[in-house]
Write a structure and sequence with these properties.
Elements (H helix, E strand, L loop, with lengths): L3 E5 L6 E6 L14 H7 L11 E3 L4 E5 L8 H17 L4 E5 L10 H15 L19 E6 L2 H25 L7 H12 L5 E6 L1 H7 L2 H7 L7 E7 L9 E6 L1 E5 L8 H4 L7 H16 L4 E11 L11 E3 L5 E3 L7 H16 L3 E6 L3 H7 L4 E5 L2 H14 L3 E3 L4 H5 L8 E2 L8 H10 L8 E5 L5 E2 L9 E2 L4 H10 L4
Parallel strand pairs: 1-6, 2-4, 2-5, 5-6, 9-11, 9-14, 10-11, 13-17, 14-18, 15-16
Antiparallel strand pairs: 3-4, 7-8, 8-11, 12-13, 15-18, 19-20
Length: 488
């Protein structure tokens, strides 16, 4: 992989890269003076399929984008992924995109550049933070500069690379092991993001402060660990906002989850460093929002804790009081994520006065059973926020599927000995239980959506876009959602 990839308005002495669809049989007149490119198109076996590459000896290359009727952002991301791998193998340092042979499609130059940039950047990553003396993987090397004489394409390419960098930041944080990535480490990382950015502010509610505030969920989930919990707030406050909206994003940040006294099996505990992936997606989204300088107010809350077992850990049958005064009977200490999220949601409604809230969490195994790795489950009863979220997911290519949340589901979480159960011992509607529980901590009238990304935040095997492991799922959707609030 490349060490750095950047976009330039124009490059010199660069490899000319022509994008062609699978039906093209001749170059446009403006490219006829490049006989080497014509020869590449006529090369036996070249079909112009997505990501198919043919390079000549005269500094030219053609890259297929597939049939024009199938050409969209998702295909272009895969083209970008295949392209960056081919360029690195060829040790190419500079590329000049030539769009003159591109088929006419509804997408404009900005959208084409953005999708290609996302694919190029996301594919150019692996977790190398802990490569040691015995590593067999080659280190990142070289610098790739991408140019084009189209200003729209150039702007899109820059934004695509920026978003990919945020996705890769999220993947890196997700893959960082629990002996390094503690709640304090996440807080330190958030402070670093805010440093030298005047409009991005970071503050941390410490364990002691959380106890004083009555955050019983955050306190109890994390008190059994030597690495005490905290709640991190990142506030993006642009000097000249173009919207009166205030979007709050809440991310579950369980840096490691043993299950507590409702302990996971050995195989079930492996990979629980990924129980912070919702929070890391929110952190990555905030990075991209600040770097793109979106003129809309966005605040992130990351309730961070490590769910461990000790003499001070919380237990099944404990009853705890939450930030908003609701009491919760603990039936399952492995249903801890909803407890820390609940305090954050209640705090957001009380102190931040949001016009919309979205929370992101690896919350239930039930959503994995229901939807697999193909899409995230989401719950939202507000029509306007639902429209915004679905449009954002469509643009990002990160699929979501709405599940119901009815009063019957909310009532199903009632307890005989407290106000609520954190998990109903009956497994009915398992993925919905988490959303039903959380709904009690959002004030009436506040648009709210819950995203359960347990099935999408990691993949067991690689695909055209990325390798196995954390995906950074949610970063691009949250960015698109925030960008969409500029309209209202």
């Amino acid at each position: 992989m490349y060490k750095t990839i950047s976009a330039s308005n124009r490059t010199t002495n660069a490899l000319r890269l022509v994008l062609v669809d699978s039906e093209r049989r001749a170059l446009p007149n403006s490219l006829r003076d490049h006989p080497g490119l014509t020869e590449l198109l006529d090369r036996p076996g070249f079909r112009g399929e997505p990501g198919e590459v043919a390079a000549g000896s005269d500094g030219g290359m053609v890259v297929g984008v597939g049939p024009r009727e199938d050409l969209g952002p998702e295909v272009l991301r895969k083209v970008g992924a295949a392209l960056v791998r081919a360029l690195h193998r060829m040790d190419v340092k500079k590329v000049e995109f030539d769009l003159r042979a591109m088929p006419r499609i509804p997408l404009g130059g900005e959208a084409i550049g953005r999708a290609l940039g996302e694919g190029i950047g996301i594919a150019n990553w692996r977790m190398d933070l802990f490569d040691g003396a015995a590593s067999r993987q080659p280190p990142a090397s070289g610098r790739l500069v991408l140019g084009c004489d189209s200003s729209d394409f150039h702007e899109g390419l820059k934004l695509g690379l920026l978003l990919a960098d945020a996705v890769n930041f999220t993947r890196r944080m997700a893959a960082t092991p629990p002996n390094v990535c503690t709640p304090a480490h996440v807080a330190s990382t958030a402070r670093t993001l805010a440093r030298n950015r005047e409009e991005l502010h970071c503050s941390v509610i410490t364990y002691q402060k959380a106890r004083q505030l009555g955050m019983g969920g955050l306190e109890n989930v994390g008190k059994g660990s030597a690495n005490k919990p905290c709640m991190i707030m990142l506030d993006w406050k642009p000097a000249k906002p173009r919207s009166k909206e205030r979007l709050v994003m809440v991310g579950k940040t369980i840096t490691f989850d043993t299950g507590g006294y409702t302990m996971k099996s050995g195989s079930g505990m492996k990979g629980m460093k990924y129980d912070k992936n919702g929070g890391m997606a929110v952190l990555g989204a905030m990075k991209s929002i600040a770097e793109a300088r979106l003129p809309v107010r966005v605040t992130a809350l990351l309730p961070a804790a490590e769910n461990m077992v000790s003499s001070s850990a919380y237990r099944p049958d404990d009853i705890i009081e939450m930030y908003n005064g609701i009491t919760v009977e603990v039936t399952n200490t492995d249903a801890e994520g909803r407890l820390v999220l609940a305090d954050a949601l209640a705090y957001a409604c009380d102190k931040l006065k949001p016009t919309a809230i979205v929370d992101v969490a690896t919350l239930t195994g039930g959503v994995v059973v229901a939807l697999g790795p193909f899409c995230a489950g989401y719950w939202c009863e507000d029509r306007g926020l639902r429209r915004r979220l679905e449009e954002a997911a469509d643009r990002s290519g990160e699929r979501i599927w709405r599940l119901p949340l009815w009063q019957a589901h909310r009532d199903f979480m009632r307890s005989n000995h407290a106000d609520l159960l954190n998990s109903n011992p009956k497994r009915a509607a398992h993925p919905i239980q988490g959303a039903a529980f959380l709904s009690h901590f959002v004030e009436d009238g506040v648009p709210w959506a819950h995203l359960d990304i347990a099935g999408t935040s990691t993949v067991d095997s690689g695909n055209e876009l990325q390798e196995a492991g954390p995906t950074g799922w949610g970063v691009r959707t949250l960015f698109e959602l925030a960008e969409g609030f500029l309209d209202g």
